[in-house]
Specification:
Elements (H helix, E strand, L loop, with lengths): L3 E2 L13 H10 L4 E8 L7 H15 L4 E9 L12 E5 L17 H12 L3 H12 L2 H5 L3 E2 L20 H16 L4 E4 L1 H4 L10 H9 L4 E4 L12 H10 L4 E7 L5 E7 L6
Helix pairs in contact: 4-6, 6-8
The chain binds zinc ion (2 copies).
Length: 275
């Protein structure tokens, strides 16, 4: 299976373990490449210079043994100039772009999401969904991301169809419209196994209908854990790869430094024994 992860949080943002601990676990688990992707968004953002210094030290420490990449998870609504020198960017939509007294994040708690829907959209879930995907469609234009993070995060607390039917045309159409636009921009998507590995979701992001559609559109994927602790670093990666294969994918992308030190993307097979 794929021995790499490019969505990794640490104590420098909202993770539980230090970069050093995450790197050690990745190495012990046999990863060939590890991409750090600290948050830069309106709620969680790092001391960028301190982050760069620490990740560069780890790059030196593991050089020749494991390829470490200095990335960022940049929110669609955050300042793209906040992360100079990032070697890759995850473009992630965590908020909806509305004027509201309440929190506008879709992924904090079910209660906060319900409040957002009620106060900013009059309780109309499909209006919230449409606003989310309208913003999601702009993530590459705004962040110039290397890949799109957790495309359908708006469904995080919707397990079992608690708020809306994720298989309905009303839900899928705005999502597919955003997806089509992003695929047209040539940007890959991650298969994000984080919520699935933590038992919040039964599927990765994007869910089956959307990931299958991505394959039909000719889109490409990376498989990531979105780990916030060392024990979750490799959790779900194999399941995510199998899920992607069941949606039609035979390969995924991995990032790495080439001989000149430039970050490049290459395609690897999803099957057993792939690296
Ligand atoms: Zn995120
Ligand atoms: Zn993340």
């Amino acid at each position: 299976m794929i021995k790499a992860n490019f969505h990794t949080h640490t104590t420098l943002c909202d993770g539980k373990d230090t970069p050093e601990e995450m790197a050690r676990t990745a190495y012990d688990d046999g990863l060939l490449a590890l991409g750090f992707s600290g948050h830069m968004d309106q709620d969680v953002h790092m001391d960028w210079d301190a982050y760069v210094t620490e990740i560069r030290q780890l790059q030196d420490k593991y050089r020749g043994r494991m390829d470490i990449l200095l990335g960022v998870e940049l929110d669609t609504l955050y300042d793209p100039a906040s992360c100079p020198g990032a070697e890759f960017r995850i473009g992630s939509t965590h908020f909806v772009d509305v004027e509201a007294e309440c929190d506008t994040a879709v992924d904090w708690t079910p209660e906060r999401l319900e409040t957002l829907c009620l106060e900013a959209f009059g309780g109309n879930w499909m209006a919230l969904v449409r606003a989310y995907y309208e913003l999601e469609a702009t993530t590459h234009d705004r962040t110039e991301c290397t890949f799109v993070g957790h495309f359908d995060l708006v469904s995080k607390f919707n397990e079992g169809g608690k708020y809306f039917d994720e298989t309905s045309k009303e839900y899928l159409d705005p999502a597919l419209e955003a997806m089509e636009y992003l695929v047209g921009e040539g940007v890959p998507f991650e298969v994000n196994c984080g919520a699935m590995a933590r038992g919040i979701r039964s599927q990765p992001y994007p869910r089956r209908e959307l990931l299958s559609a991505l394959h039909e559109m000719g889109g490409q994927i990376l498989v990531n854990s979105d780990a916030h602790s060392a024990d979750a670093l490799c959790g779900g990666l194999d399941d995510g790869a199998r899920f992607a294969a069941s949606c039609g994918f035979t390969s995924a992308l991995v990032l790495g430094h080439d001989a000149r030190g430039e970050v490049v993307m290459r395609e690897v097979p999803l099957g057993e024994g792939a690296q």
